[in-house]
Write a structure and sequence with these properties.
By secondary structure, this protein is α/β, with parallel strands linked by helices. It is about 30% helix and about 10% strand. It is globular.
């Protein structure tokens, strides 16, 4: 349990003075191995003890192509982008044995170590490498010997320029302070990019399956792309070919572990159509930008705001599947109905959601979070995962009704009915589920457009706290 000040949550991690670093073995690239086997000739993976309390006893994650015999991880760096790297190598524009120059790439802000990284708490983080941001520092003895060890986390600073923040200043929702938010609407942030690194025994435990079943499912469902999932049970780490996540932080990141200082958090899953292009069939962008405003206000009041952006497009079913579902929703008999919202996804994908929030809290534990004062999310699945991982949540913030786009009432109505927390803002019963409709694809039909707008207005008026909201 963290102290109220959070400082007890921070753990000292001494370097192991007696740990010997083996000499590197370099692969010449002349032999193509279809797979390797546990205990086979030539296999000498570097030791890796997930959760060990010092860096060298823990050991580095080694997943580069230069050390095939000593690799201690399945998969490759950069996730799906490793394919583009392969194209660059095939074309001759990238030397496959190029060593990155990492001397000036260290994090601009220090994170951890926290107790959630090590010891008895080691399974609080199983989908990312807690030391992924500091391999140059933590494993300098390995790098000095010539090992090609890559970061899986990068920490930098940036300015965020959002039109919604400019509008919030214009109408008075936000006040520039010149520090967190400038007069022209730019906010100053720290941001952290993270590549997934899965500790397979911990992932299996999180999902309530055996490690063997997990490995076999991953092997089969990737069309046997990674045979070592089956042939190398001694390799416990997997770099999956999936999207990572980015953490955006407003305010002082070092305050995050302190439970006495306000922390506002949104965990957001990617939605390219809304987040980038403003599609109005869902609430993704308006909810995200509302959360950013909440984060800015919290930082201006001396706290910290955190938005974690996960690459889980279309509930991790993918954008193609999502658009197929859109077509079914709009073309089904009776039109786009809230009562059929989840059924359409089930009919197309065979499942309504594959984000599986069990591993979602990991970056929160990496940041040292033990208490969230404001969680800007209505999702019951995200809330349950966060609280179930040992993090306290004080308040949940629904999306304001005036921010729900016309065609997004179907989404919010269906989600609240299925368990999303609408607080006093949204109240959904069977009658509303049957009434709320979205527009169809014939945009010239003004009656369909009016029906979608009317549904949004009825949803907005459903909660006692929403009756004063002005729907534009």
């Amino acid at each position: 349990m963290a102290s109220k000040k959070g400082k007890a949550n921070k753990a000292a991690v001494p370097l192991c003075q007696e740990c010997e670093v083996p000499d590197p073995i370099f692969d010449d690239g002349k032999v193509i191995r279809l797979t390797t086997h546990d205990g086979s000739f030539g296999a000498a993976p570097l030791p890796l003890e997930w959760g060990a309390e010092n860096h060298l006893e823990r050991g580095p994650v080694l997943a580069t192509v230069r050390h095939q015999q000593q690799r201690n991880a399945i998969g490759a760096h950069s996730g799906g982008y490793s394919i583009y790297k392969a194209l660059a190598v095939a074309q001759g524009t990238l030397d496959p044995v190029y060593m990155p120059k990492l001397e000036l790439t260290q994090p601009v802000v220090s994170f951890g170590p926290f107790k959630s990284w090590y010891g008895e708490s080691k399974h609080k983080i199983v989908s990312m490498d807690p030391l992924g941001h500091i391999p140059v520092e933590a494993f300098k003895a390995y790098i000095a010997k010539g090992y090609d060890i890559r970061p899986t986390i990068a920490v930098t600073k940036a300015h965020i320029d959002l039109p919604e923040c400019k509008e919030a200043i214009r109408v008075g929702r936000l006040q520039p302070d010149g520090d967190v938010l400038t007069g022209d609407g730019q906010s100053h942030i720290t941001k952290v990019a993270i590549e997934p690194v899965w500790f397979l025994p911990g992932i299996a435990e999180r999902f309530g399956v055996t490690e063997t079943d997990l490995r076999q499912a991953l092997f089969k469902e990737t069309n046997m792309m990674y045979p070592e999932l089956v042939t190398r049970p001694d390799l416990k780490v997997f770099l999956p070919p999936v999207g990572g996540m980015t953490i955006y932080i407003w305010g002082d990141p070092t305050k995050i572990p302190d439970e006495s200082i306000e922390l506002t958090v949104r965990v957001h899953d990617e939605c390219n159509g809304s987040d980038v292009f403003g599609s109005d069939i869902c609430t993704c962008r308006p909810y995200l930008t509302h959360a950013i405003e909440e984060c800015i206000r919290t930082a201006q009041n001396g706290g910290t705001g955190v938005c974690i952006y996960y690459r889980k497009e279309g509930r991790a079913l993918g954008e193609v599947t999502k658009y197929l579902v859109y077509n079914m929703r709009k073309r089904q008999e009776g039109g786009d109905q809230a009562s059929e919202y989840f059924n359409c996804t089930q009919n197309v994908a065979g499942v309504t959601d594959s984000r599986f929030q069990a591993i979602m809290p990991d970056p929160l534990h990496w940041l040292g979070v033990t208490k969230i004062h404001k969680l800007v999310s209505m999702s019951n699945m995200k809330y349950d995962a966060i609280v179930g991982s040992g993090i306290e949540v004080v308040e949940r913030v629904p999306i304001p009704p005036e921010l729900v786009p016309k065609d997004a009432a179907v989404e919010i109505t269906a989600k609240v009915f299925e368990g999303y927390n609408g607080g006093d803002v949204y109240k959904v019963d069977d009658s509303m589920m049957s009434k709320v409709m979205g527009r169809d694809y014939d945009y010239k039909k003004t009656d369909a457009e009016l029906a979608a707008a009317k549904s949004r207005d009825e949803l907005a008026a459903s909660g006692s706290a929403a009756k004063k909201a002005k729907i534009k």
